[in-house]
């Protein structure tokens, strides 16, 4: 696989850099100069700090860390979805931050392999923190060469949220568990002027739901092959695409789903304009209490011949990890203090209780103030788990797959054209 992190690739990306600044004075340039050479200043680059779920808890944790370590300064750099691109540009200039908090997806998949970040396996063991990590999380952060890309931190459950009050209003007596039941529910909801399933068909939320539905007829190994290679020609993949098209053309998804985003999806569900959404933990935590009180979580309905025996959800332990940069290895004592602090049970507990975050670390704490997050944690064996394809999709195919997703959610697009769009996304990979 061609790496996007060659110097030529870095510069090409950097020339079109668009940075959505969220701190006064913070820009691409400040990111480039953010790696303070002062050994008493730790530079952390994160998506947490503004409106991202967990931001208030994270900022409060930084304040506590500073008070406990008065001789160590912490400079906090914040970016949104463009964090990976900003980091890559700063790494090219050898001015990258010491620690990066970001998920394992798209560009970041190649970081450890090309030396943009370091293998943290030795640090995880030397600092005695391995025992704090859930085994499944450690496995997901470990690459094919046995390297641990980052210290695992945030995880997520990704069930289907059903607004029982809206279903009842439409005369839907039970949560749909089959495709036929879902289609029937969608018709009743539409008759009442309620959108059935809202989804960001124009971004990553739609891409994940599409992948989940396609896997109705795929085993985990078959799904891994399809999303690693872009080969959607197997019988199971073709049947999964056909199932998706059947649901789409039956009106299961909200109108013009191909143009919706994650923001419009959550707005539709949270304002009760739509009855159903595929919602990861951070979205579940944002559901207003008056809506959460009559919302249930479950899996995606199956159909005859499915390889799963129960409705499916997604789970992942790769939502946010702590990556150590080459600059970070020069301040490894400071990095160790920071990571020991963030791994402490009391710090982890606050993320769960205050922010409703699922964690990749061991903890007995439950999100009591976030009932839907807690309900998703309790689903257990009542649902089946589909494969989240993020760590298998080649980085070069990640964004083209979003374009293919929008095409797929466009009503009238045949199953053959959906398959072609998905496979075309891999041609540059």
From TrEMBL:
It holds the Pfam family SBP_bac_1. The keyword Signal applies. Residues 1-20 form the signal peptide. Transmembrane segments: none annotated. Keywords: Signal. It comes from the Bacteria. InterPro entries: Bact_solute-bd_prot1 (IPR050490), SBP (IPR006059), TAT_signal (IPR006311). The keyword Disulfide bond does not apply. This is ABC transporter substrate-binding protein. The lineage of its organism: Bacteria, Bacillati, Actinomycetota, Actinomycetes, Kitasatosporales.
